Amino acid sequence: MKFAVIVFPGSNCDHDAHYAVTQVLGQQSALIWHKDTDLQGADVVILPGGFAHGDYLRTGAMARFSPIMREVQAFAERGGPVIGICNGFQILLEAGLLPGAMLRNRGLKYRCEHVHVRVETTDTPATAGAYKGQVLTIPIGHGEGNYYAPPDLLKRIEDNQQVVLRYTTADGRLDDDANPNGSVNAIASVCNDRRNVVGMMPHPERACEPALGGTDGLVILQSIVKALTTA
Amino acid sequence: MSIDPQVLERHGLKPDEYERIVAFMGREPNLTEIGIFSVMWSEHCSYKSSRVHLRTLPTEGPQVLQGPGENAGAVDIGEGLAAVFKIESHNHPSFIEPYQGAATGVGGIIRDIFTMGARPIALMNSLRFGALDAPGTRRLVDGVVAGIAGYGNSIGIPTIAGEIVFDPMYAGNPLVNVFCLGISKASDIIKGVASGVGNGVYYVGAKTGRDGIHGATMASAEFDEKSAEKRPAVQVGDPFMEKLLLEACLEVMKTDALIGIQDMGAAGLTCSTTEMGSRGGAGIEIDTALVPQRETGMTPYEIMLSESQERMLLVSKQGREAEVEAIFEKWDLHAVRIGHVTDDGMLRVKHQGQVVAEIPNRALTDEAPVYRRPMESPAYLPEAQTLDLETIVGSGSPEKALATLLSSPTIASKHWAYRQYDHMVQTNTMNLPGLGAGVVRIKGTDRALAMSVDGNGRHCYLDPKRGAALAVAEAARNVACAGAKPLAATNCLNFGNPERPAIMWQFGQAVAGIGEACRALDVPITGGNVSLYNETDGKAIYPTPIIGVVGLLEHADRLLTRRFQRSGDVVVLLGDSHCEVGGSEYLARVHGLVRGVPPSLDLKAERALQDLLVKLAEARLIRSAHDCSDGGIAVTLAECCFGSQGIGVEVSLMAVDAPSSLQVDATLFAESASRVVVSVDGSLVTEVLQSAAALGVPARVIGETGGNRIRLAVAGQIVVDVATADAERIWSQAIEQVVAQKVA
Prior knowledge:
The structure holds two protein chains of two kinds.
Chain A: E1 2-7, H1 14-24, E2 28-33, E3 44-47, H2 68-77, E4 82-85, H3 87-94, E5 101-103, E6 111-119, E7 135-142, E8 146-148, H4 151-159, E9 163-168, E10 187-191, E11 197-200, H5 217-230
Parallel strand pairs in A: 1-2, 1-3, 3-4, 4-11
Antiparallel strand pairs in A: 5-8, 6-7, 6-9, 9-10, 10-11
Chain B: H1 5-10, H2 15-25, H3 31-40, H4 43-46, H5 51-54, E1 64-66, E2 73-76, E3 81-89, H6 91-96, H7 98-114, E4 119-129, H8 137-155, E5 159-166, E6 175-185, E7 200-205, H9 215-218, H10 239-253, E8 258-263, H11 268-279, E9 283-287, H12 300-305, E10 311-316, H13 321-330, E11 336-342, E12 346-351, E13 354-360, H14 361-364, H15 381-385, H16 398-406, H17 415-418, E14 429-431, E15 438-441, E16 448-454, H18 457-462, H19 464-481, E17 485-494, H20 501-521, E18 525-531, E19 535-536, E20 539-540, E21 544-553, E22 570-574, H21 585-591, H22 603-618, E23 624-627, H23 632-641, E24 649-653, H24 663-669, E25 676-680, H25 685-694, E26 699-705, E27 709-714, E28 717-723, H26 724-739
Parallel strand pairs in B: 4-5, 9-12, 17-18, 24-27
Antiparallel strand pairs in B: 1-2, 2-3, 3-6, 4-6, 7-10, 7-11, 8-10, 9-11, 12-13, 14-15, 15-16, 16-21, 17-21, 19-20, 22-25, 22-26, 23-25, 24-26, 27-28
Helix pairs in contact in B: 7-8, 7-10, 8-10, 10-13, 19-20, 19-22
């Protein structure tokens, strides 16, 4: 199986995702420069974390105009799985591939720490190998992860079960103290209508090896492999 | 033209220095040349006051691949790899503009590392502020922490460890020391040299503006109430531009089309052209009109002195220019040829073809003034060193004293700060911040590197030589506590005005102490930075040498943390305890005293202790290790419990020899050096004690982990009995509680 990891200028988790896919998952992966226009036959596309174009405007606002994004869009429209992690999630929102928007974190500070997220649906490529209600411990690292959607859109997202992960306590309870950034309905991850495009603020690639303090991120990455092999 | 004394004063040049310039040039310099001399001869660039002392430091060893003199030092870490690292200060800019000052400090040290051909993989910092609750401190702390985060997070280099100390002595002059470490192939280290007549000199990166003109001169002067007016001398950072530069430069370096490369840091284009030419025994000729500019009407003077950030100067091999240009083009950067290498040893600056400055490199580097400044033991010292223990009445409540220390912002958890730093990007971080040394694995190998930055200004104030040696010992000990063998060190020497003999004495003593400790512990100095004139309105900071030590774990899986791992383990204290409360956090926080002499340091014993730790870790004989420093063994034991899901500990300590009213407090809180608390599986205790005995390290079983309380007995009497959770709450919330309050 072949992953494409898109490299925007300012991406900084591109090599981390590439490493996790190739060295931990044992799958193929190609780092694809944002000016390229060919996904090189990838089966799945990852938009990695970072600060594409410096994120001096709004996070992700510039990256959506990169040449490769037309290909990503077409790939998504064909039903191909696209996973946006952190800045990748922000880019997917800006590109209109996912509903909603990001605000500055409640508290206005960047936060890097392990958080608990609960799996809300297993009907996405990022969670196909998890079970509903499973609580994963995965790090976040962002200053703009306060997910927002206006009430009617939020209702649609919830009704369609497009919420993929929610911030919870270690035992899976919703608790405002467990919400690190103030996201509406504690949303950490959403998918599109068609469920093939998923954006998430947590970094699964940072939690794939015991030496780094946890392996819950593997549940996400292995889900992608499972979703593709059983599709 | 003749030079007005006011012009010299504005440039920070002394009249005798000007005479020296005229004598060397054989003529009066023009204003552009004066500007160039002023930055190259500033304390910041020339090390004119410190050089005679720095020369005494040990800088060699089989592990050293690159010592001082290049952009950064490098050590051999095996498997053909090198660790490239350095520490640098950005104190003055951070006081004037905390966010940008700190951010550009981070940007500058990162450039020093990738300039050497190494990919930066870790950042650390050492910060000093005034009392946390004092007016003005919050603004500085918020700004500095946000600036470090803003730059490091964006560029994608994890900030993995550091220290923050709060003391009124830094109220008027905070310290921001930043450390960066990168990895390269040992054979691929690149240097900042220019050679080969006719080779192209390229400028790449951000355009040049009027920001930061005379930053180096500013960093070489004291502060007064007018310092805020110097704000335009602080540069503005652009981490995105630096990320592009980093990736593009590393890509260019792989091609071998480069002769040399250097970042434009302090003194910008002036320093990079001079130093590259000087190191290569060549000259450089540039035309300032070719330099990309973001403002109109800039003069050659301004262009040469600008400290705009994120700029590099590089020399390409002839015939390879197109390759170099294409790589920068890919990253949307434009490498512009602004001149060429000559063989006349001159820095020649033209503007639209017209020579505007012409100075021999030698005049700017080797011929820069070197001062053997007068030194005199400070008048405060005899009084400050006097500490009559009989007059100090113990706290009477060790539990309360422990709580006071755990909530001291210097000791309390810095979670509030490091949560703002991305400490996990690059997926190498093995030890989360706050657990002792920073540790990153080296992908593709079994190895890991441990690193620590340490310094204790109070100790150095009371005895700069011993205090500085203690800082070296502590940094190396922290690395050894992670199970890593200390390899080498970098230093950042923060002091007051060197023109005052008492300050210069502190400096000389501290360097002597560093040298002695580095020799004994076999951690040569591979580079660093000197920051003088850390004074505001004539009031100097504590003399504060900060030492960064890097160590190697040959097997990353032998990594140790400070945390107790499970209940029922035996707690062993390595090292001896004495009634050494001089200069301690206990004396300062509980008694409001900064007095006495810092703890004694037996470097042989320290070396044995560190060797032992590495050996115990390698043989997997211990489960955790944590050194005793601020707050003494009581704080150490408490910290071993924190983050371990509430595991408690019960220990019984022998009383130290002290006046009776002080005996309990001194046993718990004295800061005797060369001590480490380790936890050991019961079945391995004998082996641990034998290993210690074999190396001559005092070792004693003092108790056991377990339960959920911290219970400490002195001479058989329980004197502290607190719930681990309660102690941890005090420690973890102390800083948050203060910073959560709105800034008034």
